[in-house]
Prior knowledge:
The strands form six sheets. Strands 5, 6, 19, 20, 21, 22, 23, 24 and 25 form a nine-stranded mixed sheet that branches. Strands 2-1-7-4-3 form a five-stranded mixed sheet, with no helix packed on it. The longest helix has 21 residues, at 459-479. Helix content is 26%, strand content 22%. Helix 13 (459-479) crosses helix 14 (525-539). By secondary structure, it is an alpha+beta fold.
Amino acid sequence: xxxxxxxxxxxxxxxxxxxxxxxxxxxxxxxxxxxxxxxxxxxxxxxxxxxxxxxxxxxxxxxxxxxxxxxxxxxxxxxxxxxxxxxxxxxxxxxxxxxxxxxxxxxxxxxxxxxxxxxxxxxxxxxxxxxxxxxxxxxxxxxxxxxxxxxxxxxxxxxxxxxxxxxxxxxxxxxxxxxxxxxxxxxxxxxxxxxxxxxxxxxxxxxxxxxxxxxxxxxxxxxxxxxxxxxxxxxxxxxxxxxxxxxxxxxxxxxxxxxxxxxxxxxxxxxxxxxxxxxxxxxxxxxxxxxxxxxxxxxxxxxxxxxxxxxxxxxxxxxxxxxxxxxxxxxxxxxxxxxxxxxxxxxxxxxxxxxxxxxxxxxxxxxxxxxxxxxxxxxxxxxxxxxxxxxxxxxxxxxxxxxxxxxxxxxxxxxxxxxxxxxxxxxxxxxxxxxxxxxxxxxxxxxxxxxxxxxxxxxxxxxxxxxxxxxxxxxxxxxxxxxxxxxxxxxxxxxxxxxxxxxxxxxxxxxxxxxxxxxxxxxxxxxxxxxxxxxxxxxxxxxxxxxxxxxxxxxxxxxxxxxxxxxxxxxxxxxxxxxxxxxxxxxxxxxxxxxxxxxxxxxxxxxxxx
Length: 610
C-alpha cells in the first residue's frame, strides 16, 4: 500500500504515487514535489478526506503536541484510482514553458477531460519555471507574475498597454553566455522583452513593487488576507522554500520522568496559576522563589514556565519528549523488565563486563543497551519558508483549531549509550570547557533566527552530539545501513532530579517487520568497544587539519568549531540539529581544553605501543 497524490484541478484528477514517509517529509503539506518533470505543492489537511486517515496511537507525542489524535495519511493499492484515498496536490508553479516551441503559459491543457503536461500550441512537453516568489517572513509563496514582469521595462506606449499575454515565450539569446542574461522572456504581441539577469538579486521583486498575496498557492485568490512582508525571488528547488516542522517520539511504556513530574507540579500550583499571564514585574520576582519552594523546582524552570505558554512551548518540546524516553531506557538498564513491550524491546549489552574493554573506557561509557525493536512515530506540525519564525500549521491555522496531526510510524533497531554522570559533571565543570562552550552561547545571542539556538546549552550536549556523528560515520561501514538511514537522539541535561547523559543511534523503516539486525548486534562488547575507540580516534584526525582544528566558527551561522565534512558532519536527515553544535576537540582535547576521552586515547595508544 502506498499513498497517492491527486494532481488534477477542476477536471478528472490525475493519480501519481509517493512513498508513505515522503508525505510527512520531505513532501508534506506546503512542500514542492517534482514528479515526471511536473511540479506540484502539497495542500493543507483541511482538504484531506479525514475519513480515510486512520488514527495512529502514540500517547507521549499526542500529549506533547497538545492534540487529540495523530492520523496516518491515506494509502491505496498500487492500481487504485479512487481519489478518496489520495492526498491533494496542486500544480505549482502554474507558469511553465514548452521545451519545443518555447511558449510560456499558466494554463493547463486538457485532453479527454484530464489535464496533460503538453503544450497547447505544439503538444510538446512543458517544464515548470525555475523561479518563484516567497514571502520573506510570512510563510507564503506564489508565482512570479511573468506578464507584468516581462513588460516592466517597456519602452513605448504600445508595450505599456499590451494585454495580449497569450504569446509569451522563453528564449535563449545566442552568444549571451550561459547565465541568466542569456534567457529572455519575449512578448510576441508587442515585442517587449526582458532577460532574467535581474532575478539574480533576491530583492528584485520587492524593488519593483510586487506585493505578497498572503496566500498559499492552493487557496482561492479572492480570499482577503493581508501580508506586509516583502517578496523574495528564489529558485523553486531552494531549501529556503520549505523547512518541515516535525516532532518525533519513540513509543515507550508510560514512564513519567522526575523532571516531567516536577514540571506538572509547577503547572498545577495555585500561585503559579494566579501569576501566569500577568505582566512581569515585582510580583513575578516575589512569586518565583515561593513557587520554587512549594514545588521543589529550580527557579529557572519556574521562570521559564511563567513566561512561556506551556501549550506552545516549542523550544522545549523535544526535551520534554526525551525526558520520558530517558526514564524508560534508564529503568531497562537498571533491570526493570516491566518497562519493555513488543515495540520497545531493549536488553542490556555485555559491555563493559566482557574482557578486553579498556578500564578507562568503561569508566566513561557505563552502559550500552541493545535496542532490538523500537517504534518511532513522526508527526508533521507545519512548515516554514525563508526567514519565517513561527511555523505555518498544517491546517493553515483554521478557526476551529487543529484536532489532529498527520503522522507515520516506523519500526527499527538501535544502540543506546549511557555515560557516567559523575565523569560528565567533573569534566564539564572544568573552567576551560566552560570557556569553550561560551562560543555557542555568544553566537546564539547574536543570531536573528532564534529557532536554531539551544537556550540552555550544556557542554555535554556538544560532546555527545559530536560523538554520535562520529559513531554514525563508523557504523555506516559496519552495519550495512547507509549513513542517511541512521538517526540520532541526544539525551543531555544536568538540570532537575534526573540528569541525562546518553545517546541513541537507530535506524527505522516503514515496514512493520522492522529492520534486519545489522545495527543492534554491533552493541555487543566484542564489536562495540572497537567501534567506540575508532570513533574517538577519528575525532583526533581530520584531513582538513590544522584549518578545521583551529577554526573559530564554521558551518551554518558559525555554530561549529572543530567539525567539518571531512571529520564530523553527516547526512542532514540523520542529525537532529542540522549539522550544528559540533566540536570534536571536546572529545580528544589539546593544550587549551581537556578532552573527555583523552585518557582513553592515551591508554589505547600505549597498549598498541606496548
